[in-house]
Structure formats: C-alpha cells, structure tokens
Amino acid sequence: MPEKIKNLLELAPDERANLMITLLSKGISGKVLDVMKSIPREYFISSEHFAEAYHDKPLPIDNGQTISQPYTVGFMTDLLEVKPSDKILEIGTGSGYQALILFKLGAKVYSVERIQELFDRSVRTFFDFGCNGIHSILGDGSLGAPEYAPFDKIIVTAASPKVPQELKNQLSTGGIMVIPVGSRESQTMLKIKKINDSYFEKTEYSNFRFVPLIGSSGWNTNE
Ligand code: SAM
C-alpha cells in the first residue's frame, strides 16, 4: 500500500472503527465494511474536514459536489450484491470513493463523471490507490456508457428524475441497478432487477438526498 495512504490510515483508527460499528448496527454487511475500513476517507476531503471524516454524513468535495454519507455508500453497495468479476457501471465518480469500494470487492468498474476537474482528480486517486482496473469515463453518464455495455450492475450516485431508459437497456438480463429517483430535494432508493427486456422487478427503499444527475436523461442545469 502506498505510504501516503498508510499514513492517513494511522490518523484516526478509533473513529474509523467506531463508524464501522455504527454501520454494522444499521445493517451494513461485514463484507462491505471490511473494504470501507481499508480506505481512509480523509484522502477524499480537504484537511479542514478531517475531524468529520468518520462522522456518518456527506462531506464536500470540489466543484460543489459531495462524497456520500458512509451509510448510503454501504447501503447501496449491499443492494448491488457485488460478486467478484461483476462488470459494474457507476454514474457519478465524484471523489472516486464508491468506485474504489466496488473495485476492492473484486468488480471490474467503469465510472462516469461529467465534471472535468473531478474526473482528472479521480484518475490520480485510482493511481494513488494502485487500482489500474477502474475505467474512468468523462461525459454524461445519464446516457450510460453504451460502448462498454452490457453491465451486470449499474449504480447511480446522483439524484435522477426517472430511471433512464438508456441505463435499463445497458443492464444485462438478471442484472441489478441501484438508483435514487425523485425530486431534486428528496429521492427514493430503487433497486431494479432486469428479468427480461420488458420486465423489471422494482424494490423501493427509504428516502435519501443526493446532488442532481445533470444530463440528457437527468435534470437540466438550471431546472
Ligand atoms: N460516487 C461519488 C463518490 O464516491 O464520491 C459521489 C458522487 S456525488 C454524490 C455525485 C456525482 O455525480 C458528482 O460528482 C457529479 O458531478 C456527478 N454527476 C452528476 N450528473 C452526472 C452525469 N450526468 N454524468 C456523470 N456524472 C454526473
């Protein structure tokens, strides 16, 4: 493990362990928590927020975006039922934290980000963590990544007004999509399983609040 990451892991071991206990008590699986424990959240945030790195809340990253609340990351990862060698599409790379977790669970990850600065930074992040198996894509992820489809799993980490048809098309039969859908203020977490091209099984979970998915099948910037 690179020295920089090792040093960050030494910063707040007790706080990190306590957060994992909290998440376990909220129902997040041990398998996902083991991976979350191995990634220092300090890496993704500015030092002024270090004291809050292991609070269970979203934190700001650059360009007005956020790294999601740890509970939300764990919950969505569990809903995806990640298996080693799954081919997963993530929409909304942001800090790269969620993509790293999926990669460390053994998946082949394709991650799309629309903001150039965040995209550039995430490429450096994946390099720093020694992950050469994450494929970074710059563009409008509301349209998916048709050139790499189909995907076993799709995870959308921004709030969508609907389930984009393009993403449904790019999911394999038997595949799972996890996506927060609703208004810009509040979204219901959906787990969607593709039974066949015309039938999708949908399970609804509680409400979350994400930054908007901006794009052709998402929100307009000024909506
Ligand atoms: N998964 C991220 C992480 O682990 O840090 C958190 C994602 S943040 C809540 C949402 C991200 O979605 C932002 O970085 C935002 O720029 C990005 N985003 C919004 N609309 C997008 C789109 N159409 N395509 C790709 N990325 C988008």
Sheet with most strands: strand arrangement: 5-4-3-6-7-8-9
Give the name of the CATH architecture of the domain at 58-208. 3-Layer(aba) Sandwich
The H-level CATH homologous superfamily of the domain at 58-208, spelled out, is Vaccinia Virus protein VP39
Structural class: alpha/beta
Bound molecules: S-adenosylmethionine
Say how many strands there are.
9
- Radius of gyration (CA) equals 16 Å
**What is the chain-wise order of helices and strands?**
HHHEEHEHEHEEHEEE
Q: Main sheet?
A: 7 strands, mixed
Supply the number of helical segments.
7
Low-confidence stretches: none
Helix fraction by DSSP (H/I, runs of at least 4): 25-40%
The average pLDDT score comes to 96
Separation, N- and C-terminal Cα atoms: 43 Å
CATH topology of the domain at 58-208: Rossmann fold
Shape: globular
Q: Multimeric state of these chains?
A: single chain
CATH class of the domain at 58-208: Alpha Beta
Task: Write a brief structural summary.
The chain has helices spanning 3-9, 13-25, 30-37, 70-80, 97-104, 116-128, 165-169, and strands spanning 59-60, 66-67, 87-91, 108-113, 134-138, 151-156, 171-182, 187-196, 199-208. It is an alpha/beta fold.
